[in-house]
Amino acid sequence: MQDYFNQIKYTLKKQTVLTQLLILNLSVFVVTNILDNFLKLNLVNYLVLNIGNYEYVYKPWTLLTYMFVHLNLAHFLSNILLLFFIGNLFSQTIGSKLLYVYILSGLVGALLIIVLSMVFVNQFQQTFLVGCSASVIGLLCACARYSPNLVLSIFFGAITTKLKYIAIGTVLLTTIIDFSYNMGGKISHIGGALFGVLYGYYLQKGIDLFNLNFFSKKRNKHLKIVTYEKDKDYEYNEKRVFSENRMNELLDKVIKSGYQSLTKAEKDELNKYSQKQ
């Protein structure tokens, strides 16, 4: 059993962050539906963010879990397809920090509606948040602010336009239009979009909000002279490439034949390389 879980762990570790997010959303959807339909256990009530009656106060985890839960198949498919396409766009334009932007966009969207519910108490008594749409819109807006003039083709090539116009149109369609329906969700979309724009704006200026060094304003006045030795640097890079190739070989063996197929020496070697990542 332990070997089985180790194989799953190493298989997931080899996937991209976007693939891991897609798998997580799919897993939650499948598990919650199985429990609900076969065991009559409604786990969704413990995962969605319920704004009414301040339930989030004694269910604080729902600030995070709501963005991985979907109510039905149509809701799941629409959000997961958007996550797939926009997540790939984010990876191609910005690269890293997809998970951070996904989580923070969802959190900002949730916090925005929580603050508004404290001001307009009677408007949000029956409101709850569920789904990853606020997070996905945050990813889209981050891309659009970072590369606003990137030209994309949508609707199977029928329309070619700049990314900034796609983002503006998406935000308008999912928020401002018809506020009488799903008002809470649309407000969370605004929060996600605001964070995405903020992150893309600073990233365009060379500032990554998730880089902790950004918050440190102190500079070291005592400079240390370092001698650059080309040969040593070459040797280091050569060893690093060898380590990465060897780790990939071991992971491929785990995926094809299972974790139990590794010798004790190979297991120790794989653990050593994993700790260095």
Describe the structure.
The protein has 277 residues and is mainly alpha-helical. It folds into 2 domains: 2-215, Rhomboid-like fold; 230-276, no CATH class. The chain contains 10 helices and 4 strands; from the N terminus they run ααβαααβαββαααα. Helix 5 (98-119) crosses helix 8 (183-204) and helix 6 (133-146) runs parallel beside helix 8 (183-204). The protein starts with a helix and ends with a helix.
Characterize the biggest β-sheet: 2 strands, antiparallel
Give the number of DSSP strands: 4
Question: Roughly how much helix do the residues carry, as a percent range?
Answer: 55-70%
CATH class of the largest domain: Mainly Alpha
Number of domains: 2
CATH topological fold name of the largest domain: Rhomboid-like fold
Structural class: mainly alpha
Compact summary:
The protein is mainly alpha-helical. It folds into 2 domains: 2-215, Up-down Bundle (Rhomboid-like fold); 230-276, no CATH class.
Task: Give a quick set of tags describing it.
two-stranded antiparallel sheet, two-stranded antiparallel ribbon, single chain, Rhomboid-like fold, mainly alpha, 277 residues, 4% strand, 2 domains
Strand and helix map with partners:
Layout: H1 2-13, H2 17-38, E1 49-50, H3 62-65, H4 73-93, H5 98-119, E2 128-129, H6 133-146, E3 151-154, E4 159-162, H7 163-176, H8 183-204, H9 230-257, H10 264-276
Antiparallel strand pairs: 1-2, 3-4
Helix pairs in contact: 2-4, 4-6, 5-6, 5-8, 6-7, 6-8, 7-8, 9-10
